[in-house]
């Protein structure tokens, strides 16, 4: 069952834990002390691979606190990172201690943001559940780490993936691992959800992850680098030519395998632009879910208007403010009017009201917002304002 988002005073979990780079720095400093040889100290502890893993885990904790993840984290990312530490000589106790220290730092941040005992109690319960999930995963993979050949291969691929998405020395990592570095990559960002409530969560998670990996690495793309979990993930697919055929095939395969349970974004870029492409892909998926619902496979070209309208800044705030204080019925009527291409009768049918009621509500919208939906410029402004408003409430 989906849990409600926790608020810490007047701040969201994302604002408290992701609002400042200082939080990730504090976590890195805390975990460095568990194994200075492996993690380094001071400036050395800010290595790109450590920071990237810490930031991904910060997002996982935020998802748990905001109720957008039902106890799932990026298992494959967690396990690949942990196995890499084990193979470098880290003990189980040092890796487990690093996660416990990191969670402790996050708890301190939350406790500074609110003194509400009920909120802190619920936050503690969720974070302990999250930590239990992590500890179990670490223990399982520590036992499996004796599988040296498989571990070495996964380690090399994860190291190259991490270097690419974090902007580290990917060429050097490729040389050390013996893997080939492509000139261009297709960046695929996935958001997945379980579609069969009758299947146990752990079984469904394994099936979802395996099915996604087969699709991504299939059709002659065994060199794809992917970090996947039951909630989705990111894949980097080497490109040797145009990407249209590959993109179309992936969209069709994902649609067949997952239907509405998979929302994806695709960005093709030169190798040096992979970090920015990953961020863009994640934004596009969020916009697609907000504006089109689940099940879409999108590119930036398909969401140019929605993407630009959702950018933070003075214009974004001003557009959103135009709709401040306007009732939900009027907002819903405007959205229906735009969806139907400006057909007032179709809008009335969709809203189950008389066409005159549609006219009244849209007229009221024009008076209150200063934007006339019957005018092409006004309609464009209202659509942009609605996108900004939905982004603010997401």
Automatic annotation (TrEMBL):
<feature type="domain" description="PucR C-terminal helix-turn-helix">
    <location>
        <begin position="331"/>
        <end position="388"/>
    </location>
</feature>
<dbReference type="InterPro" id="IPR051448">
    <property type="entry name" value="CdaR-like_regulators"/>
</dbReference>
<feature type="domain" description="RsbT co-antagonist protein RsbRD N-terminal">
    <location>
        <begin position="23"/>
        <end position="157"/>
    </location>
</feature>
<dbReference type="Pfam" id="PF14361">
    <property type="entry name" value="RsbRD_N"/>
</dbReference>
<dbReference type="Pfam" id="PF13556">
    <property type="entry name" value="HTH_30"/>
</dbReference>
<dbReference type="InterPro" id="IPR025736">
    <property type="entry name" value="PucR_C-HTH_dom"/>
</dbReference>
<protein>
    <submittedName>
        <fullName>PucR family transcriptional regulator</fullName>
    </submittedName>
</protein>
<dbReference type="InterPro" id="IPR025751">
    <property type="entry name" value="RsbRD_N_dom"/>
</dbReference>
<dbReference type="InterPro" id="IPR042070">
    <property type="entry name" value="PucR_C-HTH_sf"/>
</dbReference>
């Amino acid at each position: 069952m989906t849990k409600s988002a926790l608020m810490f005073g007047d701040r969201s979990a994302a604002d408290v834990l992701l609002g400042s780079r200082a939080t990730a720095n504090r976590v890195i400093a805390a975990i460095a002390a568990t194994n200075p040889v492996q993690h380094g100290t001071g400036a050395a502890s800010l290595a790109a691979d450590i920071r990237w893993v810490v930031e991904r885990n910060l997002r996982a904790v935020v998802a748990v606190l905001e109720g957008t993840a039902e106890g799932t984290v990026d298992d494959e990312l967690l396990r690949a990172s942990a196995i890499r530490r084990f193979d470098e000589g880290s003990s189980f106790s040092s890796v487990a201690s690093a996660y416990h220290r990191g969670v402790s730092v996050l708890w301190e941040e939350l406790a500074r943001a609110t003194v509400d005992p009920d909120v802190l109690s619920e936050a503690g319960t969720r974070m302990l559940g999250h930590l239990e999930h992590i500890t179990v995963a670490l223990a399982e993979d520590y036992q499996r780490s004796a599988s040296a050949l498989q571990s070495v291969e996964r380690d090399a691929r994860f190291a190259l993936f991490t270097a690419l998405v974090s902007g580290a020395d990917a060429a050097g990592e490729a040389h050390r691992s013996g893997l080939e570095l492509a000139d261009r990559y297709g960046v695929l960002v996935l958001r997945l959800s379980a579609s069969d409530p009758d299947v146990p969560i752990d079984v469904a998670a394994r099936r979802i992850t395996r099915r996604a990996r087969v699709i991504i690495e299939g059709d002659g793309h065994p060199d794809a680098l992917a970090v996947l979990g039951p909630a989705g993930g990111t894949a980097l697919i080497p490109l040797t030519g145009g990407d249209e055929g590959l993109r179309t095939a992936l969209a069709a395969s994902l649609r067949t395998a997952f239907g509405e349970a998979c929302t994806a974004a695709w960005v093709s870029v030169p190798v040096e632009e992979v970090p920015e492409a990953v961020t863009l892909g994640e934004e596009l998926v969020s916009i697609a879910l907000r504006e089109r619902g689940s099940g879409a496979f999108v590119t930036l070209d398909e969401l140019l208007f929605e993407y630009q309208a959702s950018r933070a800044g003075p214009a974004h705030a001003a557009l959103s403010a135009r709709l401040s204080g306007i009732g939900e019925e009027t907002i819903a009527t405007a959205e229906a009017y735009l969806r139907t291409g400006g057909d007032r009768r179709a809008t009335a049918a969709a809203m189950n009201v008389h066409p005159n009621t549609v006219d009244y509500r849209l007229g009221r919208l024009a008076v209150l917002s200063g934007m006339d939906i019957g005018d092409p410029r006004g309609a464009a402004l209202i659509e942009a304002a609605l996108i900004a408003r939905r982004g603010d409430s997401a």
